[in-house]
Amino acid sequence: MGVISVITLLLVLPGFANVIARAADTASDASGVTDSSELATSLDAMSIANQAESGDSETATTNAEKTATTTSTSSEASRSSEDNAASSATSSTASSQALKTRSMVTKAESTTPAGTLGTVKWWVTPATGSTTITTKWVLHLSGGDFQGTVGNLTSGSPWNDLASSITEVSIDGEITASAATKYDYLFAGLYAVSHIDHLENLNLKNVTSLNSMFSGDSLLSSVDMSQNDFSSVTSMNSLFYLDTHLGLAEDNVTVLTDAVKLNGKTFTSMTSMISMFYYCSRLTSVNFKDWDVSTVQSYVSMFMNCSRLTALDLSTWKMSPNAKLSSMFSGMSALRHLVLGENTLLTGSGLPTVSSTAPYNGTWVLQGTNQMYTSAELMAQYDGHTMAGDYYWATDAQVQVNYQDALGTAVHKSTVMYGADGGPYETTPLDIDGYQLVTTPSNTKGTYQSGKTIEVTYVYAALGPAFTETMTAFNFGNHKISNEEQIYDLTSKTGDLKIKNYGTAGWSLSAQLTKPFTGTTTGASLDATLLYQNAAGERATIGTTQPVQLIADTTSGSGEVNVSENWLSTGTEGLKLKVAGGTVPRQDTYTAEVSWSLTNGVENK
């Protein structure tokens, strides 16, 4: 390995000759559906999804339309009754008004809705905030057995007539199913319900279907079924269909990061998840990592129009090779991070197009690499065996990893990694033949920053001697031109020649004058000789024809040696410059270059 020194000589008449040696190294909101006509259309689509297995699509569409009409009529009638009561109370005297109020309360108490479904009793109690004018109910379910299918698209469950007033649900005892049954539409259409308590009391053994169980619950904030056993369930199509508040707390401000908790490791019989999260437009995250989806055959429209879901971790999913994926991710306009595994499928999944507006460039990038794909390319080319990992929308945020020696010379081509702004990066050193890692930087891990290239530099050394520092300049001082031969001592230097041995053999330092002394103004040549003198006073000429060995070290082992440490202090050891007398052509500044090189020597003893 070599480094170049540039030597400069300034000769003036009748003044000074200034000799300088300088070293140079060679070596880038879909809100919930509230319009009644749009809701009816959406329910129609839901019906098709839920009855796809039976093929009764036409019936499902008709039922959806009936349900939408029934719900609207019921709600309007309820509101009309309340308005009439309020008007009547206003037109009466204070005494009469009080009597009427007591009469209303008595009537309400005597006609509180209640009933029985199978052996499960259901009833309502006033909820917090309930008044004689604005009735709010808590729906209670006792323990027992529904003893059959509990709901359908046309009429829903028995409590659906109270949908406008039920704001909470509490399952107060364990509900079991003694025979195979379906819990389809169990809580569907309860559009005023904000939370459902004690869902763990639903014993799902023998329950085969949860289709549309919570669909249309447009104020429902969260669902916790983390303790339920789903091992009998085969279908949960449209489970959260049009639950447009799911993921947003009841204060309408706080975003819930764990709004949906399902015991996914028990999905061992599941075959269909069609439209499961369709139009859950407030949902920002769901933990899917423990889900067993190995038996699922259809994910059609599963996350369609989940316009606030930013990330999906599907890395642990073992998806069936023949599973249907059409429109699985369609309309997921905020999706910017995918964690894909060995058995993840993407073909035909409707992955949205990546933005090409700065800082984005229209592609997905595999984190820690420079592999970029458009959505179409990723869906078509994804192979879990060779492409698994974290994918982000590619930006101008990047990390450049350098592999250099101590002098900054590359020993391997740099690599560039891309990632999302604020996303994590992690680098590792390479194994490079003939070199060993000597310095690991402090920023091997960090976060990507948009518009910035972060450089991570690993320092290597050859398996043998290597320069760890070189002189950037050295100077022979100022001297008068003389007719006599002159030998000038080194008067100053910047930096040192430091060498460290990373091998087991000794080393030797050699030098060669690669460019003779030449006037920078006149171009004239100077008859000058660069010398090296050791501590014993022995001199070696550094010529232009070949490298000349100056120092041989056989005892230093792997320690660092500063060979130029005493070149100024002793006046004996170091570089010297000999200028022949009477040969200076004229006043000028003369420069030259010298190359330093290291080679392995004999084995250390």
Automatic annotation (TrEMBL):
<keyword id="KW-0732">Signal</keyword>
<dbReference type="Pfam" id="PF06458">
    <property type="entry name" value="MucBP"/>
</dbReference>
<dbReference type="InterPro" id="IPR011889">
    <property type="entry name" value="Liste_lipo_26"/>
</dbReference>
<feature type="region of interest" description="Disordered">
    <location>
        <begin position="51"/>
        <end position="111"/>
    </location>
</feature>
<dbReference type="InterPro" id="IPR005046">
    <property type="entry name" value="DUF285"/>
</dbReference>
<dbReference type="Pfam" id="PF03382">
    <property type="entry name" value="DUF285"/>
</dbReference>
<feature type="domain" description="MucBP">
    <location>
        <begin position="398"/>
        <end position="460"/>
    </location>
</feature>
<dbReference type="InterPro" id="IPR027994">
    <property type="entry name" value="WxL_dom"/>
</dbReference>
<feature type="compositionally biased region" description="Polar residues">
    <location>
        <begin position="97"/>
        <end position="111"/>
    </location>
</feature>
<keyword id="KW-0677">Repeat</keyword>
<feature type="domain" description="WxL">
    <location>
        <begin position="472"/>
        <end position="600"/>
    </location>
</feature>
<feature type="signal peptide">
    <location>
        <begin position="1"/>
        <end position="23"/>
    </location>
</feature>
<dbReference type="InterPro" id="IPR032675">
    <property type="entry name" value="LRR_dom_sf"/>
</dbReference>
<dbReference type="InterPro" id="IPR009459">
    <property type="entry name" value="MucBP_dom"/>
</dbReference>
<dbReference type="Pfam" id="PF13731">
    <property type="entry name" value="WxL"/>
</dbReference>
<feature type="compositionally biased region" description="Low complexity">
    <location>
        <begin position="57"/>
        <end position="96"/>
    </location>
</feature>
<protein>
    <submittedName>
        <fullName>BspA family leucine-rich repeat surface protein</fullName>
    </submittedName>
</protein>
